[in-house]
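dumping this here before i forget
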Amino acid sequence: MQDFVGVDETARQHVVDALAGAHLGAGTDFERRFQRHFPDLCRLFHSLYGSRADWLEQLTALVVQSARSWQERPAELKTLDAEREANSGWFLDNTMLGGVCYVDRYAESLEGVRSRIPYFKELGLTYLHLMPLFLAPEPHSDGGYAVSSYREVNPKLGSMEQLRGLAAELKANGISLVVDFIFNHTSDEHGWARRAAEGDPEYSDYYWIFPDRTMPDAFEQNVREIFPENHPGSFIQMEDGRWVWATFHTYQWDLNYSNPDVFRAMAGEMLFLANQGVDILRMDAVAFIWKQLGTPCENLPEAHTLLQAFNAVCRLAAPSLLFKSEAIVHPDEVALYIDPAECQISYNPLQMALIWDSLATRDVSLLAQALERRHNIPGGTSWVNYVRSHDDIGWTFADEDAAELGINGFDHRRFLNSFYVNRFPGSFARGVPFQDNPKTGDCRISGTTASLCGMEVDPAEAVERILLAHSVAFSTGGIPLLYLGDEVGQVNDYGYDREEGHETDSRWVHRPHFPEEQYERRLDPSTPEGAVYAGLKRMIQVRGTTSELAGTRLVGFATNNRSVLAYQRPGQPGTSGKGSEILALANFSDQPQALGAGTFAGYSAAAVDLLSEAELQLTGGVTLLPRQYVWLRVTPV
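structure:
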């Protein structure tokens, strides 16, 4: 540590001299942030690249690049930076509500998205995630996740100028813009990849490229196959005979972050997007970004160091920008990415998967265990809670957690797969399998929320399941996220495989086009669309006026009933020292469930269900109808 202090001081002076020589930083907000955040950036960058003789020159170039980006940052975004530095927990507010969509499928273009801002305000959105919209080659785009330019919008959707204008208009309407930052890999048609394919040694070092199978074979001793239907192993052969790392699809080449040139290049792309008005970057495939021989090349410590270093760069040049982690891995590993200095917000894949588990089994044991054990995260961070996303559903619960409840993880996953693709007797679900792997028995699930909840089988019950599932996502703490179209009960697109490039990817079944007729029925509560919309709107309204539902803190609550989920959301203490709190109850059973008065012995007798405004006397217990949920305001005794 003492040695590094000396390195830090030497590096600081070297960088200060370079900034002065470039006429950057002096007497500005950048200089203040540099004084505060440079020690962290220096430590992190040295940890990654300190063994290289040129590490200090690389670090200096990175900071100079960041200072130039700050200099170019629009004045209105600098004002926003100052506001959010003064209110760093802005995203923990109980009025936060997210929506996510593909631009082309939901609105055809960026102009179409702009025209839907009045609807977003009607719904109550404060956060809009536009799925990958950058230049990507068709049909090998992987839904936009094979990026060939981070600085160009797909011309079918619009232009970067239109994206910048949309970001500004969204902000004016209280909506933050979220986009994906696909930083584990690029398309093989990205300019860097094209130069590498031509044999340029500088750009060949941007990727993991080897002359023969010696190193690929060595790496693959420990690396798992992600998409075995796409290609076996992790490498594919290039036209010139060399081998390049492609974790996911053959046309997505993994970036080599052991090369600091790659770090600086991607930091430049990140800061460019921040200066267009992007508020949050969804950091794609964070588990895979660092490779090391002899390891699985997933969730390595350096992956966290890399994210923290990128974060430190943003604190210098785009301080209001947040990172959202996307790590569909073991729950212990998911939690490690969540930190104010790493990813301030994170998808909550465990909660999502276990909501579906509870719907299938009518047993909330795994979900209740997860909420009590794995929900609470560091201060200044937040979950993004969702019922489904653009992606498939994978059963990411920990086998050891399941074993404590007498559940065999492998067998249980096979049951859930069977249930959700309608291969289990009595299933209500109409999902589609994704990436069946006969070797491992692994499979994931595709399907819209409505179809997985049985809309094609029994619409009335499906509506109840849709609302029940969202009641958990909306009340457990964090930012609730709606896949747009779900709020009107949109079902599967069974013609997905007739679109070019979608034939072998069943996830397109749950990425339908905008359901105009269903939206037109959203205000008619006698229709399934209207019933879903009204139920969600009521939750949104109540959540936004209930201070106890801000933040993420949650306390478990035992009902001694395997069908009824319960948890407490504590409020701020009142003048008596005992403030009110919210007790959420959710019956995942198909039968009424009675909870006796003793269950509520820790509360005063009077309670109110905020959703229905009904008053209850807890001394008489509580009976929940099938698939009923309540948010009770209660007072501890």
